[in-house]
Specification:
By secondary structure, the protein is an alpha+beta fold. It is 46% helix and 21% strand. Helix 11 packs across helix 13. The model has no long low-confidence stretch (mean pLDDT 95).
Length: 443
């Protein structure tokens, strides 16, 4: 067997393989052996026909299977010697195959091109200090008070915002009742349950029956009501409200490790600041990587982009809870066209692959390694106390998981190197309040 390779592009190699007649004959014998179990001939039990008779009976009808064996055996021999190394096994087409003259087949495979990262030390960026507004701290304290509130029954007075009510509710169009519930739970802080309900319930009294007319929008999610003018009748059966704890040192002590309300505020400030600084670091670091990405020129192998695209698509389907949902339906849920979503996901996939290849090359140049103990520690940290020791031990022995964790830690170390060697200029202050509004932080 002989083979030769030829560079077809920056990421594709062409490979030609020539096999001898003896090798072709060996592949036919393997094909006969595989088919032997299905051959029936007079005087022999199924699967017990002598191989030479199987060969005479089947002749060249097994040529396709023989070609598969020939390619598999050839690739097993030459795969370790292919330079540059293939990302995936080549796909071949038979050019000729003869039991007397031998065979020739040609294929292509993708490889990772030579990558020369642009300058990755002393990259420049702006980094602003985090500003924690008083309003952010007060909102967090308010949420803590609500979490520790006592639910009490409203005995008198009118229904307020953030009351928990139970209604006798009916929605009708003329004489036709479209919806009726004798014990409908309704939280008055929500205005997305049914049009007009929040505004009419708030200010009403326990036991009071009220009605209002409402024209429902054409695009209302429940088509049973969409575009109709309905009469809504309700009676408030009961209502509860949250009694917030007093904002004082006792409240702070009840939360655990604090002596005063001032201690609580300091702790909230510290935690929000740390989270905000992580966001700032991540965003600034991404600008450094984007610059590195833009200045490092190379062609990205299509197969890697395809694999990353499929991984993202599977993750998206998993989050939706529909593992076989077509991309077109996912696009409809996202409010965009299939073409637009596919292009955006493919562009993001290519960007991710490009960044990963650049960072991997930098890691190689810098000799960045990951110790086995680092992998074990991260697996155990993520497993936490809820996972039994026996299961954690199984996880630490999972080779696929270890490879993923090793890659993750190596990329993190490489990003740390870029960050530690960057040069920062002070930028505009970063508002924590704005980060919460953007969803980058969660209360």
């Amino acid at each position: 067997m002989e083979f030769k390779t030829k560079k077809k592009s920056e990421t594709v190699m062409e490979i030609t393989v020539n096999n001898s007649a003896e090798e072709v004959e060996q592949s036919f014998q393997k094909a006969y052996e595989k088919a032997r179990g299905t051959v029936k001939l007079p005087g022999f039990r199924k699967g017990k026909v002598p191989l030479d008779m199987v060969a005479r009976h089947l002749g060249d009808s097994v040529a396709g299977e023989a070609a598969n064996f020939l390619i598999q055996d050839s690739m097993q021999d030459i795969f370790p010697d292919l330079e540059p190394a293939p990302i995936q096994a080549p796909r071949f087409e038979i050019e000729s195959m003869s039991r007397e003259k031998g065979a020739a087949f040609k294929g292509e495979y993708e490889y990772i091109p030579e990558i020369k990262p642009a300058k990755y030390r002393k990259l420049k960026a702006e980094k602003g200090d985090v500003k924690i507004e008083d309003s952010v701290i007060e909102k967090k304290i308010d949420l803590l008070r609500k979490e520790h509130a006592i639910l009490k029954t409203r005995e008198e007075g009118t229904i307020q915002d953030e009351d928990y009510t139970r209604l006798q509710l009916k929605v009708a169009e003329g004489e036709e009742v479209l919806f009726e519930n004798e014990d409908f739970p309704f939280y008055t802080n929500r205005d997305d349950v049914f049009p007009g309900l929040k505004e009419n319930v708030i200010g009403s009294s326990i036991g009071e029956e009220k009605s209002y007319d409402q024209l429902i929008a054409e695009d209302f999610p429940d088509q049973k009501f969409a575009g109709k003018k309905v009469a809504v009748t309700f009676t408030i059966k009961e209502s509860s409200y949250r009694e917030l704890p007093e904002l004082n040192d006792e409240f702070a002590k009840d939360l655990g490790e604090f002596e005063t309300i001032a201690d609580l505020r300091k702790d909230i400030d510290k935690n929000i600041r740390e989270a905000a600084e992580d966001v700032v670091r991540s965003r600034v670091l991404q600008t450094l990587v984007d610059e590195l990405n833009e200045k490092t020129k190379f062609e990205v192998p299509t197969s890697l982009v395809d694999s990353e695209f499929q991984r993202r698509l599977e993750n998206l389907r998993r989050r939706i809870g529909q593992k076989d949902m077509p991309l077109e339906q996912i696009a409809q849920l996202a409010g965009e066209s299939k073409e637009s979503l596919e292009k955006r996901m493919r562009d993001d996939s290519e960007k991710h692959v490009r960044e990963s290849l650049i960072l991997a090359e930098i890691a190689d140049k810098e000799g960045i390694e990951v110790e086995a103990s680092e992998i074990d520690d991260l697996i155990k940290e993520r497993a936490g106390d809820r996972v039994p020791d026996s299961q954690i031990e199984m996880l630490t022995k999972n080779d696929s998981l270890r490879d993923d964790i090793r890659f993750e830690i190596r990329m993190r170390k490489t990003l740390d190197l870029i960050w530690d060697n960057a040069e920062f200029k002070k930028g505009a202050a970063v508002s924590a309040e704005k980060l919460f509004e953007e969803g980058a932080l969660q209360y």
